Amino acid sequence: MVCLKWRNVWIAILAITLSAFAFAEDAYDAGQAAAAERRYDLALASFREAAGQGHRQAQIIAGGMLLYCGRLYGGEVPCDRIEAVKWLKLAAAQGSEMARHLLQHAGTDKGSVTRTAP
Q: pLDDT tens digits for 18-60?
């Protein structure tokens, strides 16, 4: 009886985990679609959703969008180095070399990080 209870708990945990992964993947796909249509504000919102669910590629893209902001995305994407660094550090912690490179470019090794345009 006790084993059956624990089995049900593990099945529930697995179902929730898979559901969260599917949600992150859907948000990431929505971000890709919005970016392809050059709707960068919507793309960033979708990538933030996916990034918040732990999607490594979405973390890299959201960080990059916030880091390069106006240079690449016009006025649709705000410059926010603090948030960019947050996403990039999470992706780097998951083993992303691209995120590590972008963190170096963001100047995190030089001390303070600001919300202003680079």
A: 455 566 889 999 999 999 999 999 999 999 999 999 999 999 9
Q: Domain for residue 117, yes or no?
A: no
Residue 115 located in a structural domain: no
User: Closest Cα partner for 49 from 36, 37, 59, 41?
Assistant: 59
CB atoms near residue 81 (< 10 Å): 22
Residue 94: DSSP 8-state: T
Tens of pLDDT, residues 48-57: 999 999 999 9
Q: Count up the domains in the chain and report the number.
A: 1
- Read off the CATH number of the domain in which 79 is found: 1.25.40
Spatial distance between the Cα atoms of 103 and 116, rounded to a whole number of angstroms? 16
* Cβ pair 114, 81 in contact under 8 A: yes
**Chain centroid to CA 78: how far?**
15
The gap from C-alpha 5 to its chain's centroid, in whole angstroms, comes to: 35
